[in-house]
Amino acid sequence: MKISVNWLKEYIPVDHTVEEIANKVSLTGIESGPVKLGEELTNLVVGHITSVKPHPDSDHLKLCQVDVGEEEEIQIVCGAPNVAADQYVIVALHGAHLPNGVRIKRGKLRGQESNGMICGLDEVGVPAQYMPKEFENGIYVFDEPQTPGQDVYDLLGLKDEMVDIDITPNRADTLGMRGAAWEIGATYDEKPKFTKPELNQDKVKDLTDVTATVEEKDLVPDYLLRELKDIKVSKSPLWMQRRLWNQNIRPVNSVVDAANYVMIEYGQPVQVYDLDKLPQKNLTVKLAKDGDKLILADTEKSLNHNDLVIASGEKVLGLAGIVNGTNAAVDENTTNVLVEAGVFDGPFVRKAAQRHDLRDDASNRFEKGVDNGIVSEALVRVTQLIDQISDAKEISKEIIGNYTKAEPTVIKGSIKHINHLMGLELSSDEIIQIFDRLGFTSELSGDEVTVTIPTRRWDMEIEADLVEEVNRIYGYENLPNTLPAGMETRGGYSAKRELSNKLRDALLASGLDEVINYSLLNKQEVDDFNILNSEYTKLLHPMTEDHEYLRNSLIPGLVRDIAYNQARKNDDLQLFEQARVFDRETGNDRPKELPFISGAISGNVIEDAWNTNAKPVDFYYVKGIVEELLSYVNADAQFSFVATADYGNLHPGQTAKILANGQMVGVIGKLHPNYQKAHNVNDTFVFELNIDALFDLNTRNVKATSAPKYPAISRDLAILVEKDVENGQIISDIFSNGGKYLKDVNIFDVYEGKNIKANHKSLGYHLVFLNPNDTLTDEEVEKAFTLVKDSLVQKFNVEIR
């Protein structure tokens, strides 16, 4: 909301700079900034065109003789189609500065001298979309004679100074000039003075030809009408027009402009209708029927049963609290007018405005709230303005569709408690004085104060609100600096967050780069990697189809990142993301948020160099990173990787579930070739771990031990085994039979090919035995080694080589 300082002066004495006012208001908790219109404008005056004749060398230019208050008239060449003799216009003299760095100089146009420029409103700073439509393609012409040579700035509001208030949703009372006057006046201890609007009672008649019906009274607590007969629609006066276009509202005519003016003045939206265009002499506020149409100037909206509308008979005139259609629009031929002021349910208005993409100044006010205590007065004010400008013959009394008496809010508080919460020692008189500055009525009884809040401040309900108002007006900058009382809480991360940070640091140390992706996916992406077997969580009002669902995996986002980079020739990538996924069980409305950490690696992990060859990523490289990551969990658990073909978008021969004591904690694998092709990525390996599941594992107790005093003994074992037997099964069996001195088993050779049986593979293992308390003998080692070989032969039908 832009608060015009010149307009504000009608309510409170203002002798401060706009910068000072904006700063003062900001210190009360409402963000504000100064706006100075037309600072760059110079040498703009009123000109009177005394004669116009065609340019001798142009079919559209004209030679205008213009009186600009100097001893002699000046000649200006003008190409505007609406230029004519005896017009009073805006003239930019030689040396004038206009917006966007434009400077006017004397010169010649097609051989004819031109000593300035006759201007349109858009050329002097009024945006084209807010200037009167009749001047869209030409110069601006004053409706009444002006003094040639006088500055045009005040006449047109070109250099108005404004305070731009960026309100919070609870302070919609400042969306009107009167509410803003109370707020700004309170900061300077100045009470605004308002003139109550009054109608010419000789014109007020008890007309009964129009009725109002409200079917949804719970959504429309107030709905009032007034009828004006035999008016003459004309242009609104210049003082009204300039205030409207400075508020980014286009002047239309004397009736529509009066309604818009009162919306800015009171913060109360008002609508007007051509009474003679109504199918019936009745306005009904009701819910629309599915398929009803609202005809607007440039489009047509299809309505449904969730839309609250204003209707006459079966014809929809407008969306309640938002916009009127063209069915009963007021134009220059209108003679009888119906004026509407009401209060409409904020959430209902907001949803309809969003649904039909019709948010505007009126809906914004209803969404945030309007003062139901001034609806009747605002209606009188609009009627008064229309009568003053358009001269109605008759005015109806107030026509009531629904009316709810506005009751002020009464809040009780304690002076001592208010001071305690602020950390101050203000006297009761000082606090009551602050309430008085705000226009509140106070009664003091001992320490208890009873404050009556006017209806314009509907945001106030409890004692804490009183404390906030005292703080604001007293000045936050004047509050004493004190340390908080009570027990202090030492900052830090939770144990689970500490684990998450540790895993993140481990991946960064391994050379992976962290990314952050959107938590919203499209339908296909949540299908692609639903490893959790979760129900999908869809947004009620998604922004786009690509952001409809909450993610159930981090892998789709990482695949997007890989595809984006590889499309730009950045092929060697090692990325990870630590974030939350959303798991919703069947029957639950709200999903659980689970912390996950996932990675994706593609391209070469070792670059080609003079002493090394490039090495592409493979399953075992990524598995090594995951094993390193799991070591940081410090869990008292046996981690294992079990091959699986359960996931359709992962390679069935290079994918494994990650288990901890048999419980699944993650997955690792290569993207399926078909999936890679569909998403335009090269060979990519991914992994994903559930941090919650890792955190829930028992912690391993780590004890320091001295270096062994006795030497270890090693044995190598080569076996021939069927291809289907997994290495993990072999190692597990070796540990089961190797005895208590078997410390380590490593596979060092894998061979498939010539000179061995079909469908078999040769595996080589290195076994390490160690007794930390004594020297191992060959007999002890050989005995354990024999048990290992016998068990492998028996269980897996291996051949010892």
Automatic annotation (TrEMBL):
Q: Which residues form the FDX-ACB domain?
A: 708-801
Task: Explain how, and how many, cofactor molecules are bound.
Answer: Binds 2 magnesium ions per tetramer.
Which Enzyme Commission numbers does its entry carry?
6.1.1.20
Q: Which residues form the B5 domain?
A: 406-481
Please report a single Pfam family linked to this protein. Answer: FDX-ACB
| Swiss-Prot/TrEMBL catalytic activity | tRNA(Phe) + L-phenylalanine + ATP = L-phenylalanyl-tRNA(Phe) + AMP + diphosphate + H(+)
- The TRNA-binding domain, residue ranges: 38-153
Quote the subunit structure annotation.
Answer: Tetramer of two alpha and two beta subunits.
State the family it belongs to. Belongs to the phenylalanyl-tRNA synthetase beta subunit family. Type 1 subfamily.
Protein name (Swiss-Prot/TrEMBL): Phenylalanine--tRNA ligase beta subunit
